From TrEMBL:
It comes from Curtobacterium pusillum. GO terms for cellular component: cytosol. SUPFAM superfamilies: Actin-like ATPase domain (SSF53067). PANTHER family: TRNA N6-ADENOSINE THREONYLCARBAMOYLTRANSFERASE, TRNA THREONYLCARBAMOYLADENOSINE BIOSYNTHESIS PROTEIN TSAB. One of its GO terms (biological process) is tRNA threonylcarbamoyladenosine modification. This is tRNA threonylcarbamoyl adenosine modification protein YeaZ. InterPro entries: ATPase_NBD, Gcp-like_dom, T6A_TsaB.
Amino acid sequence: MLLAIDTSAGTSVAVVDPTTGRPLAERSTEDSRRHAEVIGPFLAEVLTEAGTAPADVTGVVAGMGPGPFTGLRVGIAAARTFAAARDVPFLPIVSHDAVAADQSQGGPFVVLTDARRREVYWSAYDQTGTRIAGPGLAKPADLDEAIRASSPEAAGWDRVTVTSIPAWRLGSLAADTLASGGSFADDTPLYLRDPDVTMPGAPKRVKQ
């Protein structure tokens, strides 16, 4: 069984049967600020509902973003910890790819998720659902220009905006990749910008 986790937007967790690519259990919330609070209960609930013991998990799929630093690292840390504890593969997937795979209509389109700070993350997908540009980061007013700079034809494509990532689709993509012997995404979180928290500078000298 594959355990799939994403916290790049809301929080989504699923258990996926790798032979069918279908979910056995899933939990999700669009709340983008309670990742750490819900990830533990979601993990316990999906494993119980699927009738899957931790020892039955053969791989842990993680959505690597793009996503804000604070939220994204919660899911990736949970996935890495579970994979290490069970000594099973850690399988990274770009989160936007799951959104693209979940669309019933064919491409082309541009996937958008909230990046906070009045910015959005974007990725462009062609008619086959293949990502041809992005992930990128832009202010809404600059989005067309940012997309055009990477892929001119994609600037006019339909936009698909989501508030959470379907973790079961991450698991399904991972199952397909394992079956085909394909390559997974880089094992590097896609923050696309520096974290909000910065290291403090040297203390100021106090004059008396």
